[in-house]
Amino acid sequence: MMNMGGPSTIPEVHDFLSRLFHDRDLIPLPFQRFLAPVIAKRRTPKIEAQYTAIGGGSPILSWTRKQGAEMCALLDELNPASAPHKPYVAFRYASPLTETCLNEMRADGVKRAVAFSQYPQYSCSTTGSSLNELWKVSNDQGGWGGNGEVEWSVLDRWPTHPGLVDAFAHNIRSVLAQYPPEKRNQVVILFSAHSLPLEIVNRGDPYTAEVAATVFSVMTKLGFSNPWRLTWQSQVGPRAWQGPQTSDSIQGFAKLGQKDICLVPIAFTSDHIETLYELDIEVKEEAEKAGVHLTRAESLNDNPIFVRALADVVSTHLNAYADGSIGPTSKQIGLRCPGCTNPKCGRTKEWLARGGKPVTA
Ligand SMILES: C=CC1=C(C)c2cc3[nH]c(cc4nc(cc5[nH]c(cc1n2)c(C)c5CCC(=O)O)C(CCC(=O)O)=C4C)c(C)c3C=C
Ligand code: FES
Ligand SMILES: [Fe+2]
Predict the structure, then answer these.
(1) Nearest CA to ligand 2 atom 3
(2) Fewer C-beta neighbours within 10 Å, C or N terminus of the chain?
(3) pTM (predicted TM-score)
(4) Could you say which of 3.40.50.11460, 3.40.190.10, 3.40.50.1400, 3.40.50.1240 is the CATH number of the domain covering 162-296?
Protein backbone atom coordinates (compact mmCIF):
# COMPACT_ATOMS: atom_id res chain seq x y z
CA MET A 1 0.00 0.00 0.00
CA MET A 2 1.94 2.99 -1.33
CA ASN A 3 1.23 6.55 -0.30
CA MET A 4 3.02 9.74 0.69
CA GLY A 5 2.52 9.17 4.43
CA GLY A 6 2.64 11.76 7.15
CA PRO A 7 4.45 12.30 10.44
CA SER A 8 2.79 10.14 13.11
CA THR A 9 4.31 12.33 15.85
CA ILE A 10 5.54 15.94 16.07
CA PRO A 11 9.28 15.02 16.23
CA GLU A 12 8.88 13.29 12.82
CA VAL A 13 7.69 16.50 11.08
CA HIS A 14 11.14 17.75 10.15
CA ASP A 15 12.30 14.51 8.51
CA PHE A 16 8.97 14.23 6.67
CA LEU A 17 9.40 17.72 5.18
CA SER A 18 13.06 17.12 4.47
CA ARG A 19 12.33 13.98 2.42
CA LEU A 20 9.46 15.77 0.65
CA PHE A 21 11.59 18.75 -0.40
CA HIS A 22 14.42 16.45 -1.53
CA ASP A 23 12.07 14.61 -3.93
CA ARG A 24 12.80 15.84 -7.45
CA ASP A 25 9.76 13.95 -8.79
CA LEU A 26 7.55 16.17 -6.59
CA ILE A 27 9.42 19.48 -6.38
CA PRO A 28 12.42 19.96 -8.66
CA LEU A 29 14.39 22.80 -7.06
CA PRO A 30 17.55 24.51 -8.29
CA PHE A 31 20.47 23.36 -6.11
CA GLN A 32 18.08 20.85 -4.50
CA ARG A 33 20.63 19.32 -2.13
CA PHE A 34 21.35 22.73 -0.63
CA LEU A 35 17.90 24.34 -0.84
CA ALA A 36 15.80 21.37 0.36
CA PRO A 37 17.25 21.28 3.91
CA VAL A 38 16.92 25.07 4.21
CA ILE A 39 13.25 25.11 3.14
CA ALA A 40 12.40 22.05 5.26
CA LYS A 41 13.95 23.61 8.35
CA ARG A 42 12.23 26.95 7.76
CA ARG A 43 8.83 25.32 7.25
CA THR A 44 9.04 22.90 10.19
CA PRO A 45 7.65 25.14 13.00
CA LYS A 46 4.58 26.11 10.96
CA ILE A 47 3.76 22.52 9.99
CA GLU A 48 4.50 21.25 13.53
CA ALA A 49 1.88 23.72 14.79
CA GLN A 50 -0.65 22.39 12.26
CA TYR A 51 -0.07 18.75 13.25
CA THR A 52 -0.30 19.79 16.92
CA ALA A 53 -3.67 21.40 16.18
CA ILE A 54 -5.02 18.15 14.71
CA GLY A 55 -4.03 16.00 17.67
CA GLY A 56 -0.25 15.61 17.50
CA GLY A 57 0.35 13.86 14.17
CA SER A 58 -1.01 12.55 10.91
CA PRO A 59 -3.55 9.72 11.25
CA ILE A 60 -2.59 8.29 7.86
CA LEU A 61 -0.56 5.34 9.17
CA SER A 62 -3.25 4.13 11.54
CA TRP A 63 -5.93 4.46 8.83
CA THR A 64 -3.75 2.66 6.27
CA ARG A 65 -3.03 -0.22 8.67
CA LYS A 66 -6.74 -0.59 9.46
CA GLN A 67 -7.71 -0.43 5.77
CA GLY A 68 -5.02 -3.00 4.94
CA ALA A 69 -6.03 -5.46 7.65
CA GLU A 70 -9.73 -5.29 6.76
CA MET A 71 -9.05 -5.42 3.02
CA CYS A 72 -6.90 -8.56 3.40
CA ALA A 73 -9.49 -10.30 5.59
CA LEU A 74 -12.01 -9.76 2.77
CA LEU A 75 -9.49 -10.87 0.14
CA ASP A 76 -8.88 -14.16 1.93
CA GLU A 77 -12.61 -14.89 1.45
CA LEU A 78 -12.87 -13.52 -2.10
CA ASN A 79 -9.68 -15.10 -3.48
CA PRO A 80 -8.89 -18.25 -1.47
CA ALA A 81 -6.52 -19.41 -4.25
CA SER A 82 -4.02 -16.64 -3.47
CA ALA A 83 -4.61 -16.57 0.33
CA PRO A 84 -3.24 -15.67 2.76
CA HIS A 85 -2.98 -12.00 1.76
CA LYS A 86 -0.89 -9.65 3.88
CA PRO A 87 -0.73 -5.83 3.80
CA TYR A 88 2.60 -3.96 3.80
CA VAL A 89 2.86 -0.18 3.92
CA ALA A 90 5.44 1.84 1.94
CA PHE A 91 5.33 5.59 2.56
CA ARG A 92 7.34 8.00 0.44
CA TYR A 93 8.17 10.60 3.09
CA ALA A 94 7.39 9.07 6.51
CA SER A 95 7.83 5.85 8.38
CA PRO A 96 7.47 3.05 7.27
CA LEU A 97 9.59 3.91 4.23
CA THR A 98 9.95 1.68 1.14
CA GLU A 99 13.15 0.23 2.58
CA THR A 100 11.42 -0.90 5.77
CA CYS A 101 8.55 -2.32 3.74
CA LEU A 102 10.88 -4.38 1.52
CA ASN A 103 12.86 -5.62 4.55
CA GLU A 104 9.63 -6.88 6.12
CA MET A 105 8.60 -8.58 2.87
CA ARG A 106 12.02 -10.18 2.56
CA ALA A 107 11.89 -11.46 6.15
CA ASP A 108 8.48 -12.98 5.41
CA GLY A 109 9.76 -14.64 2.23
CA VAL A 110 7.26 -12.87 -0.05
CA LYS A 111 7.41 -14.05 -3.68
CA ARG A 112 4.37 -12.34 -5.23
CA ALA A 113 3.30 -8.74 -4.55
CA VAL A 114 0.96 -6.08 -5.88
CA ALA A 115 2.28 -2.51 -5.75
CA PHE A 116 -1.02 -0.87 -4.85
CA SER A 117 -1.12 2.93 -5.10
CA GLN A 118 -3.40 4.41 -2.47
CA TYR A 119 -3.86 7.51 -4.63
CA PRO A 120 -6.99 6.73 -6.67
CA GLN A 121 -5.85 9.19 -9.36
CA TYR A 122 -2.40 8.94 -10.97
CA SER A 123 0.11 11.76 -10.90
CA CYS A 124 3.77 11.40 -11.81
CA SER A 125 4.47 13.56 -8.74
CA THR A 126 2.71 11.16 -6.33
CA THR A 127 2.22 7.55 -7.52
CA GLY A 128 5.00 8.03 -10.09
CA SER A 129 7.38 9.14 -7.34
CA SER A 130 6.46 6.15 -5.14
CA LEU A 131 7.07 3.73 -8.03
CA ASN A 132 10.41 5.37 -8.87
CA GLU A 133 11.36 4.92 -5.21
CA LEU A 134 10.30 1.26 -5.32
CA TRP A 135 12.57 0.77 -8.34
CA LYS A 136 15.44 2.54 -6.62
CA VAL A 137 15.29 0.77 -3.26
CA SER A 138 14.70 -2.68 -4.75
CA ASN A 139 17.39 -2.34 -7.44
CA ASP A 140 20.10 -0.41 -5.60
CA GLN A 141 23.25 -2.21 -4.60
CA GLY A 142 22.31 -4.54 -1.79
CA GLY A 143 18.63 -3.87 -2.51
CA TRP A 144 16.12 -6.67 -2.52
CA GLY A 145 13.01 -7.28 -4.59
CA GLY A 146 13.95 -5.77 -7.94
CA ASN A 147 15.85 -8.63 -9.52
CA GLY A 148 13.23 -11.28 -9.86
CA GLU A 149 13.02 -12.18 -6.15
CA VAL A 150 9.43 -10.94 -6.27
CA GLU A 151 6.86 -11.22 -9.06
CA TRP A 152 5.38 -7.70 -9.10
CA SER A 153 2.21 -6.32 -10.62
CA VAL A 154 0.96 -2.77 -10.26
CA LEU A 155 -2.37 -1.18 -9.39
CA ASP A 156 -1.52 2.32 -10.49
CA ARG A 157 -4.97 3.99 -10.60
CA TRP A 158 -8.62 3.31 -9.87
CA PRO A 159 -10.32 6.73 -10.20
CA THR A 160 -13.76 5.48 -11.24
CA HIS A 161 -13.96 2.15 -9.46
CA PRO A 162 -17.69 1.68 -8.65
CA GLY A 163 -16.97 0.94 -4.96
CA LEU A 164 -14.87 4.09 -4.60
CA VAL A 165 -17.60 6.14 -6.27
CA ASP A 166 -20.24 4.51 -4.03
CA ALA A 167 -18.26 5.31 -0.88
CA PHE A 168 -17.94 9.00 -1.85
CA ALA A 169 -21.64 9.18 -2.81
CA HIS A 170 -22.62 7.59 0.50
CA ASN A 171 -20.63 10.14 2.54
CA ILE A 172 -22.09 13.03 0.52
CA ARG A 173 -25.65 11.76 0.99
CA SER A 174 -25.05 11.54 4.76
CA VAL A 175 -24.14 15.25 4.90
CA LEU A 176 -26.99 16.33 2.61
CA ALA A 177 -29.45 14.44 4.84
CA GLN A 178 -28.65 16.92 7.63
CA TYR A 179 -30.10 19.83 5.61
CA PRO A 180 -33.84 20.60 5.67
CA PRO A 181 -35.57 19.01 2.63
CA GLU A 182 -36.32 22.37 0.95
CA LYS A 183 -32.61 23.30 0.99
CA ARG A 184 -31.08 19.88 0.40
CA ASN A 185 -30.74 19.97 -3.39
CA GLN A 186 -29.64 23.62 -3.52
CA VAL A 187 -26.42 23.00 -1.57
CA VAL A 188 -23.31 23.38 -3.76
CA ILE A 189 -21.19 20.23 -3.67
CA LEU A 190 -17.63 21.54 -3.79
CA PHE A 191 -15.15 18.78 -4.64
CA SER A 192 -11.67 19.76 -3.51
CA ALA A 193 -8.44 18.10 -4.66
CA HIS A 194 -4.79 18.90 -3.94
CA SER A 195 -3.62 21.21 -6.72
CA LEU A 196 -0.67 20.64 -9.06
CA PRO A 197 1.83 23.18 -10.41
CA LEU A 198 0.85 24.13 -13.97
CA GLU A 199 4.26 22.99 -15.24
CA ILE A 200 3.27 19.46 -14.25
CA VAL A 201 -0.25 19.75 -15.69
CA ASN A 202 1.13 21.13 -18.96
CA ARG A 203 3.71 18.34 -19.18
CA GLY A 204 0.70 16.07 -19.69
CA ASP A 205 0.25 14.67 -16.18
CA PRO A 206 -2.93 12.52 -16.03
CA TYR A 207 -3.97 13.63 -12.50
CA THR A 208 -6.33 16.55 -13.22
CA ALA A 209 -8.27 14.55 -15.83
CA GLU A 210 -8.53 11.53 -13.51
CA VAL A 211 -9.72 13.65 -10.57
CA ALA A 212 -12.39 15.12 -12.86
CA ALA A 213 -13.36 11.57 -13.86
CA THR A 214 -13.89 10.61 -10.20
CA VAL A 215 -15.98 13.73 -9.62
CA PHE A 216 -18.14 13.11 -12.69
CA SER A 217 -18.72 9.49 -11.71
CA VAL A 218 -19.76 10.52 -8.20
CA MET A 219 -22.20 13.12 -9.57
CA THR A 220 -23.58 10.53 -12.01
CA LYS A 221 -24.13 8.18 -9.06
CA LEU A 222 -25.95 11.00 -7.21
CA GLY A 223 -28.16 11.59 -10.27
CA PHE A 224 -26.80 15.16 -10.56
CA SER A 225 -28.99 16.02 -7.58
CA ASN A 226 -27.08 19.21 -6.77
CA PRO A 227 -25.02 21.94 -8.44
CA TRP A 228 -21.29 21.21 -8.13
CA ARG A 229 -17.75 22.35 -8.94
CA LEU A 230 -14.25 20.92 -8.74
CA THR A 231 -11.67 23.25 -7.13
CA TRP A 232 -8.04 22.85 -6.04
CA GLN A 233 -6.35 23.35 -2.67
CA SER A 234 -3.02 23.43 -0.80
CA GLN A 235 -0.80 25.18 -3.30
CA VAL A 236 2.59 26.13 -1.87
CA GLY A 237 5.32 28.46 -3.12
CA PRO A 238 5.35 31.14 -5.80
CA ARG A 239 4.71 29.07 -8.95
CA ALA A 240 1.43 29.01 -10.89
CA TRP A 241 -0.89 26.15 -9.86
CA GLN A 242 -4.04 24.57 -11.28
CA GLY A 243 -7.04 26.66 -10.20
CA PRO A 244 -9.50 27.79 -9.13
CA GLN A 245 -8.44 27.62 -5.51
CA THR A 246 -10.92 26.14 -3.07
CA SER A 247 -10.76 29.06 -0.61
CA ASP A 248 -11.15 31.72 -3.37
CA SER A 249 -14.08 29.78 -4.80
CA ILE A 250 -15.93 29.84 -1.49
CA GLN A 251 -15.43 33.61 -1.29
CA GLY A 252 -16.64 33.91 -4.91
CA PHE A 253 -19.78 31.87 -4.22
CA ALA A 254 -20.44 33.97 -1.09
CA LYS A 255 -20.38 37.15 -3.20
CA LEU A 256 -22.76 35.52 -5.67
CA GLY A 257 -25.16 34.76 -2.82
CA GLN A 258 -24.55 31.02 -2.67
CA LYS A 259 -24.14 30.40 1.05
CA ASP A 260 -24.67 26.65 1.46
CA ILE A 261 -21.62 24.64 0.48
CA CYS A 262 -20.62 21.05 1.19
CA LEU A 263 -16.89 20.32 0.74
CA VAL A 264 -15.77 16.89 -0.49
CA PRO A 265 -12.06 15.96 -0.38
CA ILE A 266 -11.80 13.81 -3.52
CA ALA A 267 -8.10 12.99 -4.10
CA PHE A 268 -7.06 11.50 -0.78
CA THR A 269 -8.74 8.62 0.98
CA SER A 270 -7.74 9.24 4.62
CA ASP A 271 -7.81 12.28 6.86
CA HIS A 272 -4.64 14.38 6.89
CA ILE A 273 -3.67 18.00 7.64
CA GLU A 274 -5.26 19.15 4.43
CA THR A 275 -8.70 18.02 5.59
CA LEU A 276 -8.36 18.35 9.36
CA TYR A 277 -6.42 21.62 9.40
CA GLU A 278 -6.74 23.43 6.08
CA LEU A 279 -10.41 22.63 5.35
CA ASP A 280 -11.85 22.20 8.87
CA ILE A 281 -10.02 25.10 10.54
CA GLU A 282 -8.62 27.62 8.00
CA VAL A 283 -11.16 27.42 5.18
CA LYS A 284 -14.08 27.06 7.60
CA GLU A 285 -13.12 30.23 9.48
CA GLU A 286 -12.83 32.24 6.25
CA ALA A 287 -16.15 30.85 5.02
CA GLU A 288 -17.95 31.78 8.22
CA LYS A 289 -16.64 35.35 7.98
CA ALA A 290 -18.18 35.54 4.50
CA GLY A 291 -21.50 34.23 5.82
CA VAL A 292 -21.17 30.79 4.23
CA HIS A 293 -22.51 27.74 6.03
CA LEU A 294 -19.86 25.13 5.23
CA THR A 295 -20.15 21.40 5.82
CA ARG A 296 -17.76 18.61 4.81
CA ALA A 297 -18.18 15.02 3.71
CA GLU A 298 -16.14 12.67 5.88
CA SER A 299 -12.93 11.22 4.48
CA LEU A 300 -13.26 7.58 3.47
CA ASN A 301 -11.00 6.30 6.30
CA ASP A 302 -12.50 2.97 7.48
CA ASN A 303 -15.86 3.35 5.74
CA PRO A 304 -16.92 -0.29 5.09
CA ILE A 305 -18.03 0.51 1.51
CA PHE A 306 -14.55 1.86 0.87
CA VAL A 307 -12.76 -1.10 2.46
CA ARG A 308 -14.84 -3.44 0.30
CA ALA A 309 -13.88 -1.33 -2.72
CA LEU A 310 -10.18 -1.74 -1.90
CA ALA A 311 -10.64 -5.51 -1.67
CA ASP A 312 -12.56 -5.55 -4.96
CA VAL A 313 -9.90 -3.47 -6.77
CA VAL A 314 -7.24 -6.00 -5.72
CA SER A 315 -9.39 -9.10 -6.23
CA THR A 316 -10.36 -8.08 -9.77
CA HIS A 317 -6.71 -7.33 -10.53
CA LEU A 318 -5.48 -10.68 -9.14
CA ASN A 319 -8.05 -12.63 -11.14
CA ALA A 320 -7.34 -10.79 -14.40
CA TYR A 321 -3.59 -11.21 -13.88
CA ALA A 322 -3.97 -14.91 -13.06
CA ASP A 323 -6.04 -15.65 -16.18
CA GLY A 324 -3.66 -13.68 -18.39
CA SER A 325 -6.17 -11.01 -19.47
CA ILE A 326 -3.87 -8.28 -18.06
CA GLY A 327 -0.12 -8.03 -17.70
CA PRO A 328 1.83 -6.71 -14.71
CA THR A 329 0.83 -3.07 -15.41
CA SER A 330 -2.02 -1.12 -16.96
CA LYS A 331 -1.69 -0.05 -20.61
CA GLN A 332 -1.88 3.56 -19.49
CA ILE A 333 1.17 3.50 -17.23
CA GLY A 334 3.40 2.53 -20.15
CA LEU A 335 2.77 5.86 -21.86
CA ARG A 336 5.03 8.60 -20.52
CA CYS A 337 3.83 12.20 -20.36
CA PRO A 338 4.41 13.92 -23.72
CA GLY A 339 6.61 16.46 -21.91
CA CYS A 340 8.50 13.95 -19.72
CA THR A 341 12.23 14.56 -19.43
CA ASN A 342 12.74 12.41 -16.32
CA PRO A 343 14.83 9.31 -17.16
CA LYS A 344 13.63 7.62 -13.94
CA CYS A 345 10.10 7.34 -15.39
CA GLY A 346 11.25 5.31 -18.40
CA ARG A 347 13.44 3.00 -16.33
CA THR A 348 10.76 2.32 -13.70
CA LYS A 349 8.00 1.70 -16.25
CA GLU A 350 10.12 -0.77 -18.23
CA TRP A 351 11.02 -2.64 -15.08
CA LEU A 352 7.38 -2.81 -13.96
CA ALA A 353 6.30 -4.00 -17.42
CA ARG A 354 8.70 -6.95 -16.88
CA GLY A 355 6.95 -7.71 -13.58
CA GLY A 356 9.98 -6.57 -11.60
CA LYS A 357 12.41 -8.91 -13.29
CA PRO A 358 15.89 -7.94 -14.50
CA VAL A 359 16.58 -7.57 -18.24
CA THR A 360 17.52 -10.95 -19.63
CA ALA A 361 20.00 -11.14 -22.45
C1 LIG B 1 -3.24 13.55 -4.34
C2 LIG B 1 -2.78 14.29 -3.41
C3 LIG B 1 -1.59 15.16 -3.50
C4 LIG B 1 -0.93 15.71 -4.61
C5 LIG B 1 -1.27 15.57 -6.08
C6 LIG B 1 0.15 16.49 -4.09
C7 LIG B 1 1.05 17.22 -4.87
C8 LIG B 1 1.99 18.11 -4.37
N9 LIG B 1 2.25 18.45 -3.05
C10 LIG B 1 3.27 19.37 -2.96
C11 LIG B 1 3.82 19.91 -1.78
C12 LIG B 1 3.47 19.55 -0.46
N13 LIG B 1 2.51 18.65 -0.08
C14 LIG B 1 2.49 18.57 1.30
C15 LIG B 1 1.66 17.77 2.08
C16 LIG B 1 0.67 16.93 1.58
N17 LIG B 1 0.36 16.71 0.25
C18 LIG B 1 -0.69 15.82 0.15
C19 LIG B 1 -1.29 15.30 -1.01
C20 LIG B 1 -0.90 15.61 -2.32
N21 LIG B 1 0.13 16.38 -2.73
C22 LIG B 1 -1.07 15.47 1.49
C23 LIG B 1 -2.15 14.51 1.85
C24 LIG B 1 -0.23 16.15 2.38
C25 LIG B 1 -0.26 16.11 3.91
C26 LIG B 1 0.21 14.84 4.51
C27 LIG B 1 -0.57 14.47 5.78
O28 LIG B 1 -0.94 15.30 6.59
O29 LIG B 1 -0.82 13.28 5.99
C30 LIG B 1 3.51 19.40 1.83
C31 LIG B 1 3.88 19.49 3.30
C32 LIG B 1 3.04 20.39 4.09
C33 LIG B 1 3.40 21.82 3.82
O34 LIG B 1 4.60 22.14 3.90
O35 LIG B 1 2.49 22.58 3.48
C36 LIG B 1 4.11 20.06 0.73
C37 LIG B 1 5.24 21.05 0.77
C38 LIG B 1 3.66 19.61 -4.31
C39 LIG B 1 4.78 20.59 -4.69
C40 LIG B 1 2.88 18.84 -5.16
C41 LIG B 1 2.90 18.73 -6.62
C42 LIG B 1 3.95 18.68 -7.37
S1 FES C 1 6.73 13.00 -15.82
FE2 FES C 1 5.04 11.78 -16.42
S3 FES C 1 6.03 10.02 -17.23
FE4 FES C 1 7.71 11.21 -16.56
FE1 LIG D 1 1.12 17.83 -1.38
Answers:
(1) 336
(2) C
(3) 0.96
(4) 3.40.50.1400
